[in-house]
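Researcher: Here's a chain I'd like modeled. Treat it as a single chain, no partners, no ligands.
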Amino acid sequence: MAKKIAEIRRPEIVWALYRAAETQRISLPSYDQVAREGSMSRQLIRHYFANMDEMAIALCDALADYYRDCLMKGIIAADDSRRLSIFLDFYFNFMSERGLPKPADDVVYDALFALAATNLQVRDNLRGQYELLQMTLAHEVQISFPELHQAGCRELGYLIVIVMYGHWKMVASLGFSTEYNRVSRAALDRLIESYTTRYVPPD
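Model: Modeled as a single isolated chain. C-alpha cells:
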C-alpha cells in the first residue's frame, strides 16, 4: 500500500530541521533555514507544521525512534545476559564496529534542551523520553541482576542516564577527548558492581 504524502513529507521536513540545527548550535533554525536545508518551500513546511514548537516535538520523537531502532538492531540477536552491556556500549559509541554508531546529535539535543527551558511541551516530551530511558535501563539491570532490589535498579537507571548525558555534554559540547568514552563506560561497570554487591534497600 502506497504511503500518504504526509507520511513522506513530514519526516523529510523533520530531518531537514535536524540538519539545519546541526549548524545552528544552541538555537533551533528558522523556517527559512529549514526550507533551504530541505530544498523545499517555507509554505510547504508551514502546511505540515503550523509552528516551530510542533516541529521541535516531532524532532524529539524522531530522535527517540531512531535510538530505539538502533538499540533493537543491537540486542535482537543477543542473549539476556548481554543486553545491558550492549545498551551501554552503544551509548558510549563502542558498537560502531558492528555498524551501530551512536548518532552525533549532541548539538541538536543542546538546541532542544535550550528550547525546553521556555517551552513546556518540549520539556515534557524530553522528560518523558529520558524517564522512559531510565525505566528501560532499570529493566535491563533487573534482567542482568535479578537479585538486586527494584529500588536499586531504578536508582541505577537514573544514574546511568545522567552519566551518559553529562559525559556527552563534556565530550561533544565542550570538546573533551573521546578517550573519556572508555573512562565513563568503565565507571558504569564499577557503579553497577557496587550496587550488586553492597546495595542496602531502603526501609
